[in-house]
């Protein structure tokens, strides 16, 4: 890429700084809302998966079979098709199918099942002896879940949240294809349809920077919480 190309990048970014700031804000809204709801509901689902499994607190073969297959089904569902399939539900809940808040609903659903599997894996890493020791000391199942399992797995949970947030950031770019807004929508409208390659390069650079910042912050927090 020659000097003329980078000059065009600077000129394009300068001329569109208002739209870029708006798209960046829409991306933050999508990723922030969807990560929050995916973590909340995904944690509940992941804990239910773990405790209903073999040799666990609330072992139930039928419940685990149902939840396990539901998570597998939703994780295998292509994201773009899920967005289209959820249009009626999105319109009923949000009132519209366009914009970052509407896209956040689909992102939350997709991320929830992905995060549930990560939570289950994190809880499996908690030593069985720690759980048995808590039970022998009179801890209730609710106490074991809240004070032992989630507490012991907190470093891994932070790493999983980081992975989830980065994944939702990439999905938010796809959400822009069908009215979600954000950086992905800007790249498609200007970089693809108007052949402004410099806009695509700039948006990719922003996304790379966001991923680096998110991963670095998550790694630092996970190291602080890791008691090993």
TrEMBL record:
InterPro entries: AA_ABC_Transporter_Permease, MetI-like, MetI-like_sf. It is a multi-pass membrane protein. CDD domains: TM_PBP2. The chain crosses the membrane at residues 28-51, 63-87, 93-115, 155-179, 199-218. One of its GO terms (cellular component) is plasma membrane. GO terms for biological process: D-methionine transmembrane transport. Residues 24-215 form the ABC transmembrane type-1 domain. It is found in: Cell membrane. The keyword Metal-binding does not apply. Keywords: Cell membrane, Membrane, Transmembrane, Transmembrane helix, Transport. Belongs to the binding-protein-dependent transport system permease family. CysTW subfamily. This is ABC transporter permease. The lineage of its organism: Bacteria, Pseudomonadati, Pseudomonadota, Betaproteobacteria, Neisseriales.
